Amino acid sequence: MSDTILDYLEKFGDKPFDRLPFGEVDALILAQFSYLKFDGLIPGPDESDSFIPIKALKKNKDFAKLFSDTRYEKVNRELFTRMVAGKRFGTLSMTHYVNIVDRERDIQFSAITFKLPGGTGFVAFRGTDENMVGWKEDFDLSIKDRIPGEKEAVGYLKTASGLLSGSFYVGGHSKGGLLSVYASSLVPDPIKKRIISIYSFDGPAVREEFRDKIGYESIRARIVKRVPQSSLVGMLFETDNIYEVVKSTGIGVGQHDPYTWVVKDIDLEHLKSLKKTAVILNTALMQWLSGMDMKDRARFIDIVFGVADACDSSDLVTMGLTPVKSIRQMMDGYEGMDDREKEFFRTVLGALIKDTGKQTRTEVHAGWNEFVEGVDKWIESKQKKLGMIETLNRRSAENGTDS
How many other C-beta atoms are found inside a 10 Å radius of the C-beta of residue 155? Predict the structure, then answer.
């Protein structure tokens, strides 16, 4: 059976950083840890003069809120338990937690600053979480010069660097990886020189037309980008080819989950290349995007999220708890569109398969079918987990009533 970041903590969690230097698996652990809900538990922007030890979180009355994202509650609890238990992360401390979710501004942004045992810092940017506004912001990467989260990330990194002494790391998973690269490129040189490495775990690339504008070349050599073998998110706008491929036990889109990434000894298990189907699908997606001007991209995005807005739920967890109701509401939203918008939507979506340049139809369908299969299996697994949680909660409530 393949090792994961949890197995890594089991095996090496008692080795301090002076015996086993900080590496890519440690960075992935902190990137995943940044997804926990630290609201009310870690000092925010107005009270960031103190660091809270990781062990102090267990004594907080709101400790359970850390794991309120039910999709990953079990594995995130295990991650926390194993981090606290070992010498490696057992004295980790945190400060300057920011969490912004604003539908009006189309922004979902969160970051936290860690101080590692020994004093080195790690600034972690959270990726897209369960809030739909975060997914809207991700789509906006294809049409906007700068999404709101990128502006927030630069300001955050400037402030966080002042809370740390000496050198530090920056990193994140998914959109958090993109924000790490973007912010590191734009901070002033004195801060930039203190950055040891910038970790992007399956994060989209900075669009090529903006790299010279933000000083990307000045930090390029310090970017450590890792993508799974069937990466989709991490290959968006990727033309620099600085990434390395790592093995995942997930299927299709499920490989985006860091808990599926395979750890070999003290590093991630590296592969020679992406899967052929992933290359084909990524090529098709980029050709699909390049075939639309910015106006059409924006129109398509508005339609997609207009359909999503027809749903009562504003986050994926709630949608997962009532999938049939949510799907019906979104179908009603689609049916409520006028015929011109429906035709435009169908035409643009159809072009994802049809307008693929040199890619053969058979190969594109193979890549697309694998991707769709992965989405289906991922949704099925999450719905099963959420169903189990609902059942347990109902039984607990019933037992409480009977007693």
Answer: 14
State which amino acid sits at residue 381: S
Q: What is the CB neighbour count within 10 angstroms for residue 50?
A: 10
Could you tell me how many helices (H) and strands (E) the chain has, helices first? Answer: 14, 11
- Taking only the tens place, the pLDDT of each residue in 230-261 is 998 888 888 899 999 999 999 887 888 999 99
For residue 320, which amino acid is it? G
pTM, rounded to two decimals: 0.79
- Which DSSP string do the residues of 278-333 spell out, in sequence order? HHHHHHHHHHHHHTS-HHHHHHHHHHHHHHHHTSS-SBHHHHHHSHHHHHHHHHHH
In this model, does residue 401 exceed pLDDT 50?
no
Class of domain 5-274: alpha beta
* 192/103 Cα distance (integer angstroms): 32
Between CA 153 and CA 112 the distance in angstroms is 11
Q: Would you state the structure tokens that stand for residue 195, as one six-digit string?
A: 């950055």
Partners of residue 125 on adjacent β-strands: 111, 172
